[in-house]
Amino acid sequence: MTVDDSPVLSDALRHALEVSQRGVDELLPLPDWTRKLARSEATGQPLRIKLGLDPTAPDIHIGHTVVLNKMRQLQDLGHQVIFLIGDFTTLIGDPSGRNSTRPPLTAEQIKINAETYYTQASKVLDPARTEIRYNSEWCDALGARGMIQLAAKYTVARMMERNDFHQRFSDGSSISLHEFLYPLLQGYDSVALKSDLELGGTDQKFNLLMGRHLQQEYGQEPQCVLTMPLLIGLDGVDKMSKSKNNYIGITEDANTMFAKVLSISDTLMWDWYTLLSFKSLAEIAALRREVEGGRNPKDAKVMLAKEITARFHSAAAADAAEADFQNRSKGGVPDDIPEVALSGAPLGIGALLKQANLAPSTSEANRLIDGAGVRVDGGTVSDRGLKLGAGTYVVQVGKRKFARVTLA
């Protein structure tokens, strides 16, 4: 790599650059980042690396952990990572990628979500080495005078260059004035924290660059920005999203998490390795060569599933999830399944599935039966009109849902 006026690259610096750029979409400007890393190496002063998250929902999925993983990698290089909870900016709502104004959250909702976010993020970051900040610390202190002074540092014309604002304006959709404050305040967070690098998804690029602009306006050395790609979900098509039901929640049980990772395609697996695994790029490359040389790709997928499951549960839970998956694949019944007591025998199979929480509705239960997705005591149910008398049955829906139903 050639960088104008770049320092001599030591082995440690080369390694830091490799870690920094692993799986990223963009790292801007790379020459500046190289110089920051070199200065840190020479002085022993860690760089300040910022990630801000708005607690707009109580839970996160593993797609959200792509950026957290990058933070952990930089944390392991010895730098100071700052997990910034946007309790003030959440009152505005991030307009990134939105075609309408976000509904506001109450302060109590924000507080509850913020606590959950940090607890879940701590499954990736090392809490003992993570600086936790809330941007209400400095945003509240700005006051009306400070907000006006901040707003004077950016023009409406530049703000309207932002894709989502431009598109909404062209479509005649409303843009509330307070939405212009969001990128300004996110940029001001970088000023308050004196950050050297800010991370975000590709949809955050405008906001991240705002931080560079405002730091220069306030006489600081501008931060570099690092954007990570959005993780493709289980369907292999769209980005991971709860609304598309192609996600793995980091609070899901170990067996479900393990099985969901195994369900992704052999091709998508390598993207997940790059973005989610803590294995080195050299280890991943070696494993990929083994698969291309004839090793069963399922072996590599099992390794990934166990790594991800262990991160959010434990190594023992990951081992147990693997054993559970193997048992199910052979048609076995897991050792630990829900016990359900129902009354009303004889009871129709559709109603039983709904009452046992194995299907959300009787119509969905019938659809599952038509698709040969329902088993009772190991036998596939094909008759929607089946009625079960009093007794105890092992009922299975799909590959992962089981219940031991006692019907009276």
Produce a short descriptive summary.
The protein has 408 residues and is of the alpha/beta class. It has helices at 11-21, 30-43, 65-76, 107-121, 136-151, 156-159, 163-171, 177-193, 205-217, 254-262, 266-276, 281-292, 297-312, 315-329, 349-355, 362-370; strands at residues 26-28, 48-53, 80-85, 130-134, 197-201, 224-228, 339-342, 347-348, 374-376, 379-380, 387-388, 391-397, 401-407. The protein has three domains: 11-228, 3-Layer(aba) Sandwich (Rossmann fold); 254-329, no CATH class; 339-407, Structural Genomics Hypothetical 15.5 Kd Protein In mrcA-pckA Intergenic Region, Chain A (Roll).
What's the β-strand tally? 13
Question: How much of the polypeptide forms β-strand, as a percent range?
Answer: 5-15%
Largest sheet, spatial ordering of strands: 1-6-5-2-3-4
Biggest sheet record? 6 strands, mixed
Structural class: alpha/beta
**Superfamily (CATH H level) name of the largest domain:** HUPs
Point out poorly predicted stretches: none
Order of helices and strands: HEHEHEHEHHHHEHEHHHHHEEHHEEEEE
Mean pLDDT reading: 86
In the CATH scheme, the class of the largest domain would be Alpha Beta
Number of domains: 3
CATH topology of the largest domain: Rossmann fold
Radius of gyration: 25 Å
**Helical residue percent?**
40-55%
Tell me what the CATH architecture of the largest domain is.
3-Layer(aba) Sandwich
Number of helix segments? Answer: 16
Shape: globular
Distance between the termini: 73 Å
